Amino acid sequence: MSQLFDDPMPILGQLTHLKLWVLPSLCGWTIEKGAMPVLKELEIRYCRNLKKLEGLNNVTSLRELILTNMKEEFSAEVKKSLHKYAVTTENNWKVEPPWVRLNCSRKQGVCRGEVLSCVRPS
User: Fold this and answer.
1) What are the two backbone dihedrals, phi and then psi, of residue 57, each rounded to the nearest 5 degrees?
2) Of 1, 9, 36, 44, which sits with the fewest C-beta atoms within 10 Å of its C-beta?
3) pLDDT (tens digit, 9 = 90+) per residue, 53-76?
4) Can you give the residue range of the structural domain that contains 68?
């Protein structure tokens, strides 16, 4: 469950770079049209349970997507949804940093975690 008390979209909507690192509870992310109008770079690293990223094609300002140690199925689906101006870099590190093991020590299984939804600020 999220510990957020205030709507983060007024801040998230202004970001040009966003890094999602080691979020083992994140299962899905939906980006609505106009929610992140200036995002240029997105990096997703070690979010092993992230299965769906919907609406990435709504982020027409995106120029670079970096995927590090993400599941092949996820990477393939995300790359299909990108517009033609975005460049994708995939990193598959053989040795995991120790901080990943600390955060991912729970048993991996069906994700019952968080779903992030980014909506256009009103």
Assistant:
1) -65, -15
2) 1
3) 999 999 999 999 999 999 999 999
4) 17-89
